[in-house]
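ok so for the tutorial part 2 we go from a plain amino acid sequence to predicted structure tokens. step 1 is just haveing the sequence, like this:
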Amino acid sequence: MQTAAQHGAVGVLFASPRPAPASAAASRPLSTTSVLGADGKVAAARGFISGSGVNMTGTLSAAGLQALLLNAATDTARVLSSLRQGQPAPVALRGTLEANWQSTYQDFDSYNVVGKITGSDATLRNEYVVHSAHLDHLGVAAPVQGDSIYNGAHDNASGVASVLEIARLYSRLKQKPKRSILLVLQTGEELGLLGSAYFAARPTVPKTALVADVNTDMPTIIAPLLSVVPLGARHSSLAQPVEEAARYLGLTVEEDPEPDQNRFIRSDQYSFVAQGIPALHIKYGNRTPDGKNNLSEQVQKWRALTYHKPQDDINGTFDFEAGKKYVQLNFLIGYLVAQNPQRPTWNPGDFFGQRFAQQR
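step 2 — the prediction. this is what the tokens look like for a chain of 360 residues:
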């Protein structure tokens, strides 16, 4: 969006090379949600850039994208090959677009909730490790199997419960960690990471004092927790405390079983990354007690039936022992970072570090 705006675009179409799933075929109004700052201007948004000339955005199907590209004497294979190599693939499209729309506007209040545990070191207490989770879900929407209340028990009441338990662990320590801890429950994640985008850019402490974010979003605690995937940790020195904490708890650290899902940039930890702050998000691994090590298949089936549906409620599948171990792991990761005199750093040459380090 920023690149398009800088080159004078008046509109932007977003397209996917993959056909939309059947569940996404129903027509629904599109919306753009943003956070207004105290000055009344847009302070955070996904799909909107304040002050730009981009007046309209829309979506394009995979078939529509291919038709446009063929008319321009190229195709998705050539375009995507260039993009995957980090090279832009501009091409003049032969055609014009005329569009009109109707819109409505609504203001509403929604809050981040922030707690603080002061560190024990006279100097390091002025730096902060963030434990975060989002407190919103989808509310009341289209009924599924006769139920229209989207409870969000896994996504993300389980994440909020995890952060509250982490807070309780810190509160019971007689000797607090050297760095201070911020416990941040963020609003508007489902609307485009809005609460975390606002907080990460305008935190309640100096932004330069934030050293890391350990985010919790839908841990998917539906089976024994034997291995984990630390989304984003490999980009920074946060990989080390993850390995240490996992080893202490007898957990295996694995690579992401679904790299095509781009999960690292899809939850609140990415708002901190965009401000140059190393961050991670612990998800399930693939190990199972029977040795088949196919938990990702079980999770995919569960997700198809439950994710972003009213069926995500407390009556669903919960492995509370796995939840306990998940909390212990996230707590230990944050505690190790808070105790280390060295701040977490981006790995040399890392894409995210190079792209966002100047935001610090």
